[in-house]
UniProtKB/TrEMBL annotation:
GO terms for molecular function: zinc ion binding. InterPro entries: Znf_RING/FYVE/PHD, Znf_UBP. It comes from the Bacteria. This is UBP-type domain-containing protein.
Length: 86
């Protein structure tokens, strides 16, 4: 199965200077594992290995389908709708 959501993405949101998961930081949490970037709006959020799973929560709240790893040296993208790397 091929993901059609990548072709529908807007130009990637500009680079950001966020150094952590903003939602975790807002409540004093610093236990995120990895960060993800929404390729629709640029929102930064913590991954599913993190206690709060804000990246997946962002997908459910906003229906933005594709996130990219924000970890140094990683460039993979994940489509939540198709449940696959894209």
């Amino acid at each position: 199965m091929s993901c059609t959501h990548v072709a529908e993405l807007p130009p990637e949101p500009r680079a950001d200077s966020v150094e952590g998961c903003p939602e975790c930081l807002a409540v004093g949490e610093t236990g995120w594992v990895h960060l993800r970037k929404c390729l629709t709006c640029g929102h930064i959020a913590c991954c599913d290995s993190s206690p709060n799973r804000h990246a997946t929560a962002h997908f459910h709240a906003e229906a933005h389908p594709v996130m990219r790893s924000r970890e140094p040296g990683e460039s993979w993208r994940w489509c939540y709708v198709d449940n696959q790397l894209v």
